[in-house]
Amino acid sequence: MKKVNYLALSGLLLSSCAFMPAQAATDTMAKKEMSQAIVTKLDINKANAEQLTALPGVGMKKAGEIVKYRELNGNFKSVDELVNVKGIGVKMVAKIIDMVKV
């Protein structure tokens, strides 16, 4: 029969449990930050290129195209008008529609 060092085993179990509350707190903070980010919508008529890169799938090139389109055509009248911007399609607009406003 194998001898088990219960003292070492209990220390191992306690040390692995000690990280759980810290991880839960981190997860809670991340969820809170995400919900706050969703509440604050980015105004596509006022945002500069750097701010627009915060949107998923929008890098500097697409952000530049959004700003360029706005400069040439005036302010967006609706978020759906983003499909007229080079490099942005219906799928991307659907992905970011809840994160932006006009």
Structure description:
The chain is mainly alpha-helical. It folds into two domains: 1-38; 42-101, Orthogonal Bundle (DNA polymerase, domain 1). Helices cover 58% and strands 4% of the residues. The protein is built from four helices and two strands. The chain has helices at 6-39, 49-52, 60-73, 90-96; strands at 42-43, 100-101. The chain has a two-stranded parallel sheet with strand order 1-2. It is globular and about 30 Å long. The termini are far apart.
Distance between the termini: 73 Å
Strand order of the largest sheet: 1-2
Question: Which band does the percent of strand residues land in?
Answer: under 5%
Q: What summary fits the major beta sheet?
A: 2 strands, parallel
So what's the CATH class of the largest domain? Mainly Alpha
Number of helical runs? 4
Radius of gyration: 24 Å
Name the overall outline.
globular
Q: What's the CATH H-level superfamily name of the largest domain?
A: AF1531-like domain
Structural class: mainly alpha
Brief sketch in words of this structure:
This protein is mostly helical. The protein has helices at residues 6-39, 49-52, 60-73, 90-96, and strands spanning 42-43, 100-101.
Describe this protein with a few key phrases.
single chain, 102 residues, mainly alpha, DNA polymerase, domain 1, 2 domains, two-stranded parallel sheet, 4 helices, 2 strands
What's the arrangement of secondary structure elements?
Blueprint: H1 6-39, E1 42-43, H2 49-52, H3 60-73, H4 90-96, E2 100-101
Parallel strand pairs: 1-2
